[in-house]
Amino acid sequence: MPPSPLRIWIDGFPLAHPFGTGITTYTRNMVRALRRDGARTGLLFGQLVPDRLEAVERELRFFDAVPPRRGPTLTGRLLRMALDPGGPVAHEVPASGVVDRRLSSAAVYEAFSTANLPEAEEVWNARDLFGRSWVHVGLTRRLMEVRAAGTPPAVMHWMQVHPLRLRGAVNVYTVHDLIPLRMPWATMERKRVWLAAARAIARNADHIITVSEHAKRDIVSLLGVPEERVTNTYQPVAPREPIADGPLAEARLRGALGLEPGGYFLFLSTVDPRKNLSRLLDAYYASGSTAPFVIVGKPGAYAKEELRLLTEAEGTRSADGRVRHMGYLPRLDVDVLLRHAKALLFPSLYEGFGLPVVEAMGVGTPVLTSSTTSLPEVAGEAALLVDPLDPRAMAEAIRALDGDEALRARLAAMGPAQAALFSPERHAARLREVHARIGVPLGEAA
User: Fold this and answer.
1) What SS3 class is residue 385?
2) What is the rounded distance in angstroms from the CA atom of residue 69 to the CA atom of residue 269?
């Protein structure tokens, strides 16, 4: 008989968000890369599904859009910790044949659904896994252990800072950045507990992955992790579908979104203080450009303050109509907007990687971004770099992008080659190096 493929689990926390984030994209790409290298992948979730249910009901409850009447309370979590001192147990979510996991809506709803699952061979769930872990680390300063009801995988990949450890597996953590430490005023985490979790991971991780050399330097210097225990794999950026090009895409842009190809500036990200949108809006108006400025992204913390200049249509338009906040859009609309923008404007204050920058460069859209944190290393010479704290410098750069066709053409030509440095193939090779380093080479049997 042929040997069994190597089993690797990936945590499903980023996949449970109906409105995806950059970490959601990273997680999906991780699953794809591991499967292409022959691993049998499993996804570990923390949905509020009772542990002891028969197969059909367990699968139905896992995908149910109706949440429980009451979410977990602190008292309830403490009681579970007392009753289960060994930690929560992960049970497999059976593919009973009742739920058709191939079917999903093209629209995005505020509910977990089959659309959240990338292709994987196994799906597992430990009730309230992630919520309980934060209570645990806050009390103990240690990682909470989770057990598998069955044979654990060879490797457990945690996609961000989770104070968890899977018993019986090699535990690898992706730490994208240390923004809660560098910019505590810009994030909503409880900093004392987040710091305890990060330090516990620094002490106990079998290995740490990160997504830029800048982020690696922060992890080494701020958390005291030896360099040999941290690997920068960068973040993979897959080529966009050709559907974003051509007459149909342009018709969608004009008809559904009311924009002309090459006639607008684009900002693409969650709206929160770290993304520096308030300064960017000041710079846009100071530039004198009449090209519309389109903002795409779900409102985050303090979005109202960042969008203070948008006084019309319930805070989604500027008084003169030049600035529009479209909120969260489906991926197809994002791809069309990104492909046909005059330029992407992304002067973020701090990025572990900067996914929108590479996505824009990959489709030949000029980019303005920051000269700080990871962004110069990711953008290289294929973007205009500005001081994100200097609205005047940003205004001058916007003015240049608006009026200099040769500059836009030069950046558009350089972008794809720079973006190719972060291809899925290069990321997969870096992942293979990580697994070889931790003693579990990809392609070998479990």
Assistant:
1) strand
2) 32
pLDDT at residue 398 is higher than 90: yes
Neighbours of 221 (CB within 10 A): 10
Residue range(s) of every CATH 3.40.50.2000 domain in the chain: 242-420
What are 425-436's pLDDT values in tens digits? 999 999 999 999
Bridge-based pairing state of the strands 122-125 and 207-210: unpaired
36 within 8 A of 236, measured Cβ to Cβ? no
Among 360, 358, 345, which residue's Cα sits nearest to residue 393?
345
Which residues on adjacent β-strands are paired with residue 41?
8
Tens digit of each residue's pLDDT (9 = 90 or more) over 4-61 = 789 999 999 999 987 778 899 999 999 999 999 999 999 999 999 888 888 898 999 9
Helices 405-419 & 355-362 angle (0-180, nearest 10):
110
Task: State pTM to two decimals.
Answer: 0.93
CATH class of 7-236+424-437: alpha beta
Task: Please check whether the domain covering 242-420 is classified as CATH 3.40.50.2300.
Answer: no
